[in-house]
Amino acid sequence: MADGARAFRNGQGKPSDAQLRYLRRGLRQAGGKLPLFDEHGQQISTHTILSCIKAGWAEPWFENPIKPDWLVCKLTPEGRALFDISGR
């Protein structure tokens, strides 16, 4: 069973459209780095980032010493698996 399918079975639920947009952008980045800003230059919602971390689809990567309130994250294997099983 794919890890993403296991996440659904463990009650983490299906990601929202906002979560999928956020996570998808990490697929093409080195190390799976997730963006701080969307394609329009707006900061990604902290709620979106934290909910992805809680679901196990993203994880904190490192602390930003210049902007300690920014959550610099990367995709987890479970986050990548969402796209393997959903085809999105």
Uncertain stretches: 1-11
CA-based gyration radius: 13 Å
Portion in strands = 5-15%
Order of helices and strands: HHHEEH
State the strand order across the main sheet: 1-2
Contiguous helical run count: 4
N-to-C CA distance: 18 Å
Helix vs. strand class = alpha+beta
Task: Tell me the number of strands.
Answer: 2
Shape, principal axes of CA atoms: globular
* Percent helix range: 25-40%
Largest sheet: 2 strands, antiparallel
Mean pLDDT: 85
Explain the layout of strands and helices.
Elements: H1 3-9, H2 17-24, H3 46-55, E1 58-63, E2 71-75, H4 77-86
Antiparallel strand pairs: 1-2
What does this structure look like?
Helices cover 40% and strands 12% of the residues. The chain has helices spanning 3-9, 17-24, 46-55, 77-86; strands at residues 58-63, 71-75. It has a two-stranded antiparallel ribbon with strand order 1-2. β1 and β2 (71-75) form a beta hairpin.
Task: Fill in the keyword field for this structure.
2 strands, two-stranded antiparallel ribbon, alpha+beta, disordered N terminus, 40% helix, 88 residues, single chain, 4 helices
